[in-house]
């Protein structure tokens, strides 16, 4: 039997907050200190900090909710047939982490029946945390947060982490959106979605993400009044290809999709 009411999820929210506190301690104990960096098969970096944090997160989840599944970046998935599946990304932005840049985060989410019902973005160095829960407003450091009331691309402040990540026709699609924007900025990883939820930017467009990159963002964005989908406007789930758009308002989301729909390189 699933636990999906707001009151039921308070225990899970508490687990996420406590786990993020512990993840901060681990991350900061390694940050800006000599650390061995390995390259995974996809050439992305990984460190003992990533692996230690994920092991801690998995241990806390398994102890409190042993029947739930877990899907993370550094270890094999567990019990994905469960109605409830936790998503964990120990360090989103490992490239930032290993180069001393403070914009890396720890991400967690809970899926119920394949749908994200909880999400959390925790920025260890900045002491900033966003939480989202189905049926509740999203919060930033415990206070409600809201997206900005931006409805037109000409007024939008846009972020993407890496403009060179868009292959083929998707580059032109992103540039068509960016050319109409008031301002376009680069970098940020998961931090961009927190900024969007707090009304500091209006649109985030990404490609090639993994479920542990984007599923923890869903409830944070939606609970703040925003919209987050794939490039064709479909809800995000474990099988989504990883081409993601998050917008401050439905109108802005629709305006951006006119350029992006059908252009996703990983669909």
From TrEMBL:
The chain's coiled-coil residues are: none
A Pfam family in this protein?
A: Inositol_P
Q: In which pathway does it act?
A: Amino-acid biosynthesis; L-histidine biosynthesis; L-histidine from 5-phospho-alpha-D-ribose 1-diphosphate: step 8/9
**Which species expresses this protein natively?**
Pseudogemmobacter humi
Q: Output one GO BP term.
A: L-histidine biosynthetic process
Give its E.C. classification number.
3.1.3.15
Tell whether Zinc is among the UniProt keywords. Answer: no
What is the name listed in the Swiss-Prot or TrEMBL entry for this protein?
Histidinol-phosphatase
Task: Write down the top EC class of this protein.
Answer: hydrolase
Q: Which Gene3D superfamilies match?
A: 3.40.190.80, Fructose-1,6-Bisphosphatase, subunit A, domain 1
Q: Which InterPro entries match?
A: His_9_proposed, Inositol_monoP_metal-BS, Inositol_monoP_superfamily, Inositol_monophosphatase-like
């Amino acid at each position: 039997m699933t636990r999906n009411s707001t009151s039921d999820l308070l225990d899970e929210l508490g687990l996420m907050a406590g786990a993020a506190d512990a993840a901060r301690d681990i991350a900061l104990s390694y940050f800006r200190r000599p650390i061995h960096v390995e390259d995974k098969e996809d050439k992305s970096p990984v460190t003992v900090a990533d692996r230690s944090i994920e092991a801690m997160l998995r241990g806390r989840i398994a102890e409190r909710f042993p029947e739930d599944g877990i899907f993370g970046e550094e270890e094999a998935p567990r019990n994905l047939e469960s109605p409830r599946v936790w998503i964990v990304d120990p360090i989103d932005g490992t490239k930032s982490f290993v180069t001393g840049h403070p914009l890396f985060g720890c991400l967690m989410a809970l899926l119920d029946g394949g749908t994200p019902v909880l999400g959390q973005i925790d920025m260890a160095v900045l002491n900033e945390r966003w939480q989202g829960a189905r049926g509740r407003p999203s919060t930033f450091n415990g206070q409600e947060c809201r997206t900005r009331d931006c409805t037109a691309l000409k007024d939008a402040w846009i972020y993407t982490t890496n403009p060179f990540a868009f292959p083929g026709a998707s580059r032109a699609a992103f540039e068509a959106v960016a050319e109409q924007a008031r301002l376009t900025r680069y970098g940020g990883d998961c931090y961009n979605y927190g900024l969007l939820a707090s009304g500091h930017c209006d649109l985030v467009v990404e490609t090639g993400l993994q479920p542990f990159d984007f599923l923890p963002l869903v409830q944070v964005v939606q609970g703040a009044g925003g919209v987050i989908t794939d490039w064709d406007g479909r809800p995000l789930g474990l099988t989504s290809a990883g081409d993601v758009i998050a917008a401050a308002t439905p109108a802005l989301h629709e305006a951006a999709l006119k350029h992006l729909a059908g252009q996703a390189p990983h669909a």
